[in-house]
Amino acid sequence: xxxxxxxxxxxxxxxxxxxxxxxxxxxxxxxxxxxxxxxxxxxxxxxxxxxxxxxxxxxxxxxxxxxxxxxxxxxxxxxxxxxxxxxxxxxxxxxxxxxxxxxxxxxxxxxxxxxxxxxxxxxxxxxxxxxxxxxxxxxxxxxxxxxxxxxxxxxxxxxxxxxxxxxxxxxxxxxxxxxxxxxxxxxxxxxxxxxxxxxxxxxxxxxxxxxxxxxxxxxxxxxxxxxxxxxxxxxxxxxxxxxxxxxxx
Length: 249
Prior knowledge:
It contains 2 helices and 14 strands; from the N terminus they run ααββββββββββββββ.
């Protein structure tokens, strides 16, 4: 079935939704996570700039023949619709989608970080490590978690929350970008690496003209001093200074 980003009902009438932004982002996110095809019911000329901007965050789709796994599908407490989806970019980097299909109420969605992905409905991470989590659509640092923790998030009605999960390192590291819902998986040509000798974090990204690109990173007890780019302009700022989460724009 085709999907309407403008939330039209049958007959073309626009549906009255208390939080249309959350609903629209959920539609786009879940189409990306569960399918390789997007069929839209809306004309581009009817979509405002912010709507087209949100649509651009699911393109391009990744080329790898892999999809997200619904880890809570076979739990005794499983609901009709899976709510926790896991995509392993690397053993130390997951993209985790939490989904609340209920359109009339908020809901708590949870999953253990460590444990079996089928038997426990867990994310399969290392119980002896720590992990940074960053929320793409809400553009907020979710926190630093121990591998023994259970991830619990209160989702708004109809919300799909995309989280980037990175194993914490001892040196500065990237944890998200704002270009794509996969938060660096598609737009990073070369994943940022830390050079201890030069005390530099460097990498290569594909960027879009006139679309400010943000790369979020955890400083890990260091302070960023300056930034250099091959073209254009760059600036440093903070997403969450008390917790050492900086941003390169």
